[in-house]
Design goal:
The chain is of the alpha/beta class. It is built from 23 helices and eight strands. It folds into two domains: 225 residues, EAL domain (TIM Barrel, Alpha-Beta Barrel); 221 residues, Hypothetical protein af1432. Strand 5, helix 8 and strand 6 form a beta-alpha-beta unit. Pfam families: EAL (PF00563), HDOD (PF08668).
Length: 456
């Protein structure tokens, strides 16, 4: 894997123990216009060997950044911190971020360790947890990192306390849990922090009502899956008529001829435009410019047209880049994860992979159409196992769907339990596939395996 080499430190300093591996999941952060503007990386720290874990307790308060000067071997706690830094610099993490900044929780040990200087300051927002022990040494370290252009966010704020007061001067962003914070306190807290020049991020926004409340209070960023709920569909413009996409999907499900596809597409000029762009994209170029609809269908192929149409259902009609469209990114990532994961199952073939992709891509189609999810799935004529997986989480497809939902929340304990039922799939592989799927979704507009860039 490719590693971003920002700063070279000695083996006794930043490189740590290569046998320790951290796992990561991403959660989207949206701006006031509903577009992606960052991701929080949910971190699962590596497990230490038992003997090292026992030793770590007694070393937890050692100032970790001094060992590069003394040459002492890193403590177990330092080794974990450095494994997290090493993981954050891997190419698969970079690909999953799709050029967006990463918000990542940092412990006291990680803040005090010089390994943190390997992280490019412009790409990471360091989140200071509410449980952080704040003393003179930590404040001095935050001031030093701030002088190196590192940026900080106060995480999981529900109401001001002593830790909040001590760290606020150094924070650029304040993440407020709008569900757990006292509702009566929010207007005053938001007003004071905005007056102080802080960016406000609403945390835990999974309902449209919470988004609307935070938006009205002037919050700048929003973290949660409200945008993937049925009630938010009215706020999105459509990139093509939904009924036209449904008709095309129904036709594609029946193995149509080129003539049948051509006739259906001609009824919808917007779809013709998108397909012509797709056929002439760099990933699908056939050596000459495609100028007829029939040639576009032949150059693209029905399988790719089907996947393109499935994801086009989720596209926002505004002229925004694919990698900035949160609903399309979520649909594409989930579908690709399902496809990658099913391939690890015994005796899984192409048909199973196709079914897995369909399960992922249509698992929240109600966010587009509203109404009954079951009714929409029936219209799409999806198979019984796919419908059972989406509606009731049944079968292997249902287990995989539950797994990717847990991954989207960084629910590592739940992922571990599900992985035991999906052997030989492991938690580490689940996390790795999640990053690979996110990277695939982010570059799908430039890949022969994915989509064109979707815009009017």
């Amino acid at each position: 894997m490719t590693t971003i080499a920002i700063e070279t430190l000695s083996d006794s300093g930043a490189s740590g123990d290569a046998s320790l591996t951290a796992s990561f999941a991403r959660q989207p952060i949206l701006n006031r216009d509903g577009m992606l503007c960052g991701y929080e990386l949910k971190v699962r720290a590596p497990d230490l060997p038992l003997a090292d874990a026992d030793h770590a307790t007694s070393q937890a308060d050692t100032p970790a950044h001094t060992d590069t000067l003394t040459g002492r071997a890193p403590t177990p706690v330092q080794r974990v911190a450095r494994a997290i830094v090493r993981g954050l610099l891997q190419g698969d993490v970079r690909g999953a971020l799709t050029e967006h900044p990463a918000y990542v929780d940092v412990s006291r040990e990680l803040l005090l360790d010089d390994a943190i200087l390997r992280l490019p300051a412009e790409r990471f927002m360091l989140e200071l947890p509410a449980s952080l022990e704040v003393d003179d040494a930590l404040i001095a370290r935050v001031v030093y990192l701030h002088s190196r252009r590192y940026r900080f966010a106060l995480d999981d704020v529900t109401q001001p306390n002593e830790t909040f007061a001590k760290l606020l001067p150094y924070a650029e962003v304040v993440k407020i849990d709008v569900v757990r914070a006292p509702r009566a306190l929010l207007p005053k807290l938001a007003s004071v922090l905005k007056s102080a020049g802080k960016l406000l991020l609403a945390l835990g926004v999974d309902a449209q009502a919470d988004f609307e409340m935070a938006h009205e209070l002037g919050f700048d960023r929003f973290q949660g899956y409200y945008f993937a709920r049925a009630q938010s569909s009215a706020t999105r413009r459509v990139s093509a008529p939904r009924h036209a996409l449904l008709n095309l999907l129904q036709l594609l499900a029946g193995d149509p001829t080129v003539a049948q596809l051509e006739a259906e597409l001609k009824l919808n000029p917007v779809l013709v435009m998108h397909l012509m762009k797709l056929a002439n994209s760099s990933g699908l170029a056939v050596g000459h410019k495609v100028t007829t609809l029939r040639d576009a269908i032949n150059a693209t192929g029905t399988d790719r047209i089907a996947r393109w149409t499935q994801l086009l259902l989720y596209a926002d009609g505004r002229k925004i880049a694919l990698e900035d469209d949160p609903l399309l990114q979520l649909a594409a990532t989930r579908a690709r994860f399902m496809e990658l994961a099913i391939e690890r199952m015994p005796e899984a073939g192409r048909d199973e992979a196709d079914a897995a992709f369909l399960t992922g891509v249509f698992s929240f189609v109600d966010a587009v159409f509203g109404g009954s999810l079951e009714k929409t799935l029936n219209i799409l004529t999806l198979s019984r196992p796919i419908q059972a997986a989406i509606l009731h989480r049944e079968g292997t497809l249902g287990l995989l769907l539950s797994t990717v939902e847990a991954l989207e929340c960084g629910a590592w304990g739940h992922i571990a339990a599900l992985s035991e039922r999906l052997a030989p799939l492991t938690l580490e592989e689940v996390a790795q596939m999640g990053l690979a799927a996110a990277a695939w979704a982010g570059v799908a507009d430039r890949s022969a395996q994915g989509l064109e860039r979707i815009e009017d």
